[in-house]
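Take a look at my tokenised protein here and describe the backbone shape.
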Amino acid sequence: MYIEWLKHEDNWQDIKNATMNTIGRSTGAYPDPQWKLKLLRAEHSPIRKLRFSWRWQDLPYWVSVHFVRHKIGIEHFVKSQRTDRTGIDRQVLEQGALVSHECEANAQALITISRKRLCSCASPETRQAWQLVKDKVAECEPELAKCMVRECVYRGFCPEMFGCGYDKTEAFRKELEEYRK
């Protein structure tokens, strides 16, 4: 699996303007990295104006299904397996059949999805696919990528009924400390 492309437009001035509007102030200067990180961590509504689109290629169908379960702030466009569209009887296709999966999502959705899909309780293939997205986001929006963490790091503890134990490790403590910087 790989990401064929990721698109993103730098619209931080619009986000800053919307943020200032919510507190009854006029627009301000283009935000610096610290301001961006504060706004993203606060998860205030203007971060939903920060949008991304990307396409995974050769994503196993069953991994695609994991992502399609996310609905808020994200749209999915998955290659059809309909027999009349592909010429292949969909009844014979396996769950591991490879599909292209295109998404459009806002920053809030990326933060929220990361909490579940970077978790060690997610399948390794799903974590790998989401890590590809996070890595691409880091290239253009490093402050957002810093906020894209697994649930235990986000909360400071593991809320899973049958957790993996990562929250009891030194690696967790280091990751949590880095997240809080």
